[in-house]
Design brief:
Strand content: 5-15%
Helix content: 40-55%
CATH class of the largest domain: Alpha Beta
Structural class: alpha/beta
CATH architecture of the largest domain: 3-Layer(aba) Sandwich
CATH topology of the largest domain: Rossmann fold
Number of helices: 36
Number of domains: 6
Largest sheet: 9 strands, mixed
Number of strands: 20
CATH superfamily of the largest domain: P-loop containing nucleotide triphosphate hydrolases
Strand order of the largest sheet: 1-14-13-12-19-18-15-17-16
Length: 871
């Protein structure tokens, strides 16, 4: 049937009239989603022409080619918006049934109040839908055909690569599969790898809710051993946390899920992910691996490099929702917007939108367009960086009236009390507008996302953080540039991934991606769909920077650069090769990584790594778990530690719990010692970082940390003003610019940057290497008795808390803000995870006067007694 249908589809699409009608229908469908005052300029379409297109769609749906299935779905969904006879919409239902898009079909039936008319049609619909229906918890959910194919493949595949658009529901399926295995098997271990803390937190919450009430399960986002020895363990971690976990335990995993697997190509982080995956499959040949990506190629080659020989693909390019790409440009000399639909056949006229709003200023045009076109449903507005997101949100919030919702006052108050009273985000939130970027505190970011999903926040100005993973669909997406904040061109696949946020499966059937001034972009990446190209980052670095890597292996490590990540890739590549040489398998490793590389050059690379490992004389275990850090710098640091031990200066070496007396002065010395040995860096930067890291590790609330930074910024500004005033008095003719007032938002953003980039990333890695080297030196120098006294400040830096109770709250899935607030309430800093859970179950939240936002987070994780049982 499919071959006949394909031949017929080819004949139908060979007619010029088909394309005229198809494009006219697409334009009409897009127009129906736009404001009512739109003056339509697209070609008109008669009802019988729509019926003919629906016949074509029924043929296309029977083929096995995605391009035809995509057109069939576009015809069916666009026809729903076409104001014509009821019979047309019934035909749409039949096409959606044939396509197996049951979430879209259910939405259409409910929203348009239509039902399948004939008994035969109703029977076909019910049978088809039942075949695609699965039980998820207490619900029965109808899946799309692609979802059902994936669902059937999950239990039977040792390695599966799932590639599908953002809105296809792939993560949901994999999480449900993981949770079923956890529930059904008597013993089970799984790890879910998420590239960002934002996605990590979202997955942790989903898994926690799904497994609520299942006995003997430990769910943790913290890389630590389980003191209760639960038979079932699920770790939800970033690749960096997975690396730490693998270094402290030899446990094997039954299932490994890699979300956003295209990140195997992502520089040093991609190398970490690759190395961790290789360790996991080497530990247990039966470990099942599932990789997820929003449209990617190269899975099989990447899997082969990692050591996964057979990877089964499951792929689609068809989204279950309609996503219109609409070009927006100002009509010259008029307060009007020209709207065109971008299709594979070029840009098609949709209409002209008159407005009382001016669009003349390029700097505010993105916000103006969003306000004009984003009135229906939530709108994501892309900004090129955190400061840009703040600026766009500020412009959006100038609108006299956007949104009034009582939930926004709670969120705004939370921001003032738990971030800073002068943070401008609070006033924006009260107007239904917010900005969002990855380095925000977790609870703040998640609260903004929840408010957006609920409809309380209508406009969210965001950065590339939302380009990956986080489930935050919207009715509208606005983009006016294909660049990052630095001006570099984004990977087109990233933009397509972000555009995929437009449209919400089960909640809508259409989403609009507005491309503002698209014709003026330096490139036009949205013309055709672009997949991610997966190529292991280590392989790319070795192929592109072979000579630099060889030089690094000889001790000539390149200096890191904030504008170029090549030196970081070279250093990491050299470190990993040296670690493999110390392990004794660098030759085989190089052969697998570079199968087509000339033997002589590959052997020279391996030989240089072996020579470096021999020269360093550091244990293979330390090099293997810290290869991201310059191994020659590690050797210098080790030698300096040994020197201080022999000089009887051990007290200056052993890190203390930051709550202990003397910790403040101790960490400045430790951090400076690390920086000097690893990077040859002198100065007081280590002391500056320690001054921020200590309150961070103590769980000191953000308002306190930020108030101190703002006060210091104002003191510096005052000092500069006084110095300039003095110079002016000394020389009245001297022209001196008045100092700018302190920008509180900028100071807050800079502190967030330092916490995330330096404290929670750079010094977490440096700190782990320091602890490992210190323990080695103590053992080698006859002071092994002191090793247990070393405080793991690396973990404390990562999670922002130093007590056992705080760690337990975070292991339960709570944010640092919530954990910090809770540990102030209970007079025991050594609560285990089980004890923390038991205490929370009986917590009287009204008596605590916790922020409603914190209470909501605790409730979402089902850590409180249900409202009916405990207030």
């Amino acid at each position: 049937m499919s071959s006949f249908a394909t031949e017929l589809a080819q004949r139908l699409t060979s007619h010029h009239s088909y394309w005229e009608n198809f494009l006219a229908l697409q334009s009409a469908g897009a127009a129906s989603t736009l404001p009512d005052q739109l003056e339509r300029t697209h070609a008109t379409l008669a009802g019988d022409e729509v019926v003919k297109l629906l016949y074509c769609a029924s043929v296309f749906a029977q083929t096995d080619q995605e391009k035809y299935k995509g057109m069939a779905q576009a015809i069916a969904l666009n026809s729903l918006f076409f104001d014509t006879e009821h019979d047309v919409r019934e035909r749409c239902i039949r096409v959606l049934t044939e396509l197996g898009n049951f979430p879209g079909l259910s939405y259409a039936e409910t929203h348009y109040e239509i039902q399948t008319g004939s008994l035969l049609g109703l029977l076909q619909r019910r049978v088809s839908q039942e075949l695609n229906t699965v039980d998820v918890g207490d619900e029965r959910l109808a899946l799309t055909d692609f979802q059902k194919d994936v669902w059937d493949a999950l239990p039977n595949s040792s390695a599966l690569a799932i590639s599908a658009p953002t809105s296809a529901g792939k993560s949901f399926l994999v999480i449900e599969h993981l949770c079923r295995l956890t529930t059904d098997l008597p013993k089970f271990a799984a790890v879910y790898v998420a590239p960002t803390r934002a996605l990590l937190s979202e997955v942790h919450q989903s898994v926690t809710l799904r497994l609520s009430g299942v006995e003997g399960v430990r769910i943790s986002s913290v890389p630590s051993l389980d003191p209760d020895s639960n038979p079932k363990q699920v770790f939800i971690v970033t690749q960096e946390r997975l690396q730490v976990l693998l270094s402290i335990t030899d446990m094997v995993f039954d299932l490994v899920v890699v979300d956003e697997a295209q990140n195997l190509s992502d520089g040093t982080r991609g190398m970490i992910l690759q190395e961790c995956l290789e360790q996991l499959v080497q530990r247990n040949k039966s470990t099942r691996v599932i990789m997820l990506a929003p449209g990617a190629e190269g899975f099989s080659d990447a899997a082969s490099v990692i050591g996964i020989p057979e990877l089964k693909p499951a792929s689609t390019t068809v989204s279950p929702v309609l996503q219109n790409r609409i070009l927006v440009s100002k009509v010259a000399g008029k307060d009007q917007l020209l709207l065109r639909l971008l299709t594979p056949n070029g840009a098609q006229q949709v209409g002209i939108l008159p407005s009382k709003r001016g669009f003349d200023i390029p700097a505010t045009r993105l916000a103006s367009v969003a306000l004009e076109l984003g009135s229906k449903g939530g709108s994501l507005v892309y900004a090129t960086g955190p400061s840009g997101a703040e600026d766009v949100a500020d412009q959006l919030s100038q609108e006299p009236k956007i949104q009034e919702d009582p939930r926004l006052e709670e969120l705004a108050t939370f921001i003032e009390e738990h971030i800073h009273p002068e943070y401008k985000l609070a006033s924006m939130v009260r107007r239904g507008v917010a900005f969002h970027y990855g380095k925000m505190p977790t609870l703040l970011r998640e609260s903004l996302e929840r408010a957006f999903k609920s409809g309380a926040i209508q406009f969210l100005a965001c950065t590339t953080t939302l380009f990956q993973g986080v489930n935050l669909p919207a009715r509208n997406v606005f983009i006016d540039t294909p660049t990052r904040g630095s001006g570099t061109i984004l990977d087109p696949a990233l933009l397509w991934n972000f555009a995929g946020r437009a449209g919400r499966m089960k909640k809508d059937v259409v989403g609009n991606v507005f491309l503002v001034d698209y014709d003026e972009w330096p490139e036009q990446p949205m013309n055709e769909f672009v997949r991610f190209q997966i190529r292991p980052a280590l392989q790319s670095a070795l192929l592109n920077s072979y000579d630099k890597v060889v030089a690094a292996l000889e001790g000539n490590m390149p200096r890191l650069s904030p504008r170029d990540d090549t030196p970081a890739r070279v250093r990491a590549s050299a470190g990993l090769l040296i670690a493999r040489a110390a392990k004794g398998d660098v030759q085989a490793f190089a052969t697998r990584i570079l199968p087509d590389f000339p033997d002589q050059r590959r052997m020279a690379l391996a030989a240089a790594a072996e020579a470096a490992a021999k020269k360093l004389e550091l244990p293979a275990s330390i090099l293997a778990s810290n290869w991201m850090i310059d191994p020659f710098g590690q050797k210098r640091l080790y030698d300096r530690i040994v020197e201080k031990i022999r000089d009887d200066e051990i007290n200056e070496l052993i890190p203390l719990n930051p709550h202990d007396k003397g910790a403040s002065s101790l960490y400045g010395g430790i951090f400076s010692r690390i920086l000097k040995a690893i990077y040859g860096q002198n100065g007081n930067f280590g002391g500056y970082v320690a001054g921020l890291a200590i309150p961070w590790m103590k769980g000191v609330p953000y308002p306190v940390i930020l108030a101190k930074a703002i006060r210091k910024a104002k003191e510096r500004a005052q000092k500069q003003a006084e110095e300039k005033a003095t110079k002016k008095l000394e020389n009245p003719k001297l022209r001196i610019r008045a100092p700018k007032p302190v920008n509180t938002n900028k100071v807050i953003r800079e502190i967030f940057d330092i916490i995330e980039d330096v404290v929670r990333f750079q010094f977490v890695q440096l700190g782990k290497a320091y602890i490992d080297l210190l323990a080695l030196a103590l053992r080698n120098e006859g002071r092994a008795d002191l090793v247990p006294t070393i405080f793991d400040f690396s973990l404390a830096l990562e999670i922002g808390i130093a007590t056992a109770s705080g760690r337990s709250f975070i292991q339960l899935g709570l944010s640092r803000i919530a954990a910090s607030a809770l540990e102030q309430l209970y007079p025991n800093s050594n609560l285990s995870t089980a004890q923390a859970r038991d205490w929370l179950r009986g917590l009287d939240v009204e008596a605590t006067k916790l922020s409603p936002v914190i209470v909501e987070e605790i409730r979402l994780l089902r850590l409180l007694e249900p409202l009916g049982e405990n207030g």
